[in-house]
Amino acid sequence: MPILNRVADLHPDIQAWRRDIHAHPEQDYDVHRTSALVAERLRQFGCDEIVTGLGKTGVIGVIRGARDASSGKVRVIGLRADMDALPIEEATNLPYASKNKGVMHACGHDGHTAMLLGAARYLAETRNFAGIAVVIFQPAEEEGAGAAAMIKDGLMERFGIEEVYGMHNWPGIPIGAFGIRQGAMLAAYDSIHIRIEGHGGHASSPHKCIDPVLVGAQLITALQQIPACNVDPLDAAAISICEFHSGSAPGVIPETAELRGTIRALRPEVHQLLTKRLRDVVSGTAQSTGANIALTFTGGYPVTFNHAAQTELSMRVAKDVVGEANVLETPPVMGAEDFAYMLEVRPGAYILCGNGDSAGLHHPTYDFNDEAILYGTSFWIKLVESALAS
Q1: Whole-angstrom Cα distance, residue 136 to residue 158?
Q2: Across the chain, where does the E strand assignment appear?
Q3: How many angstroms separate the CA atoms of 390 and 252, rounded?
Q4: Alpha carbon distance 266, 189 (integer Å)
């Protein structure tokens, strides 16, 4: 391509949209301001159809190409961006920093939304493709499975989507580069909550108590042995306990303790194994210590799996935009993405767009790099024009 002159012309507008969204972050399904901004822009662009309220607060824009399909069959592809922010207090001190205390765009969804808006504007102006492009603006990626909610509301069937594509910025990948791989791209995960009920008492009489802190410590150690001892070393798996809450005084053995964390795997079979062994270890620890232990799985996402043909197309398009040397075959990532739900019901692919040497995702000093706008927006445009060429 590589970068379209028109995209360069649009860059100031796209950057302004991005920074406005960044300054007004919203969480989960409560992305009402962002959804309204997106819908208003799509109306201004002249999209053929705009639908709001899909998956509670999702927004859809439909853009019909001006070229005739050589086969006579009208093909439809979907492009998805996420809109929600995180419960993190921003520490960037930027002029456009979050105005909403305790909430920030620490994962770059502001950039994702702005880039897809930029592509929608261009595609609605030019319509140099045969078929239909459906731009999907999704709530609740971080928590709440907004992708699944949109699917449940009929996203794929209502708009006739045959293939679906997603993009995420990625710190550590240089600006002007992309990363992608066929197969498992991101891990499946579940959140876990473990509640331990022991028997409290005076710290001088531990023999009269069932100490939930000690039980929790034993559990943490035992759970780490599952990936080490039960999973094939060639398979990726992780169990992480990230919260441990118990007690309120140095001389009191408490009654209860609570642990929270996640389990992650790149293959469904390994994910099932982790789940089974987790239950076994919790049950065994309860029996050996005399504590009552309740294990709850509080929801998660499946494996984000890139399909072969759509991955190949994405790689080809990315090479057109940035050159072959700047399209990297990345290793799988143990993070998770609810775009996985879309890839379960339609073939598609998920690509990483370089964010350069920025702070990491979910960090209070992270900021989406506006230089990436040129590449991400150009990728979306070229993808539509290539997938719907005739």
Answers
A1: 13
A2: 49-54, 58-64, 76-82, 132-138, 163-170, 178-180, 183-186, 188-197, 201-202, 237-246, 252-253, 256-265, 292-301, 304-306, 327-329, 348-354
A3: 73
A4: 9
Q: How far apart are CA 72 and CA 69, in angstroms?
A: 5
Q: Which fold has domain 5-184+303-387?
A: Aminopeptidase (3.40.630)
Rg of the chain (C-alpha set): 23
Helix (H) or strand (E) holding 341, with range, is helix 339-345
Amino acid at 333: V
pTM over 0.85: yes
Tell me the C-alpha distance between 275 and 293, whole Å.
16
Report the topology of domain 188-301.
Alpha-Beta Plaits (3.30.70)
Measure the CA–CA gap between 356 and 372, rounded to whole angstroms: 8
Q: Of 95, 179, 153, nearest to 370 (Cα)? A: 95
Residues forming a β-bridge with 354: 170
**What residues contact residue 256 under an 8 Å CB cut-off, 6+ apart?**
195, 196, 197, 198, 212, 246
DSSP labels, 131-198: SEEEEEEES-SSSS-HHHHHHHTTHHHHHT--EEEEEEEETTSPTT-EEE-SEEEE-EEEEEEEEEE-
Structure confidence by residue, pLDDT tens digits, 42-85: 999 999 999 999 999 999 999 999 988 767 789 999 999 999 99
Sequence ranges of the domains in the chain: 5-184+303-387, 188-301
CB 180 within 8 A of CB 311: yes
Amino acid at 232: D
Answer with the residue of higher pLDDT: 87 or 73: 87
Model confidence pLDDT, tens digit, residues 345-368: 999 999 999 999 999 999 999 999
What sign results for the dihedral spanned by CA atoms 116, 118, 124, 130?
negative
d(CA 117, CA 234): 41
Query: Is pLDDT above 80 for 210?
Result: yes
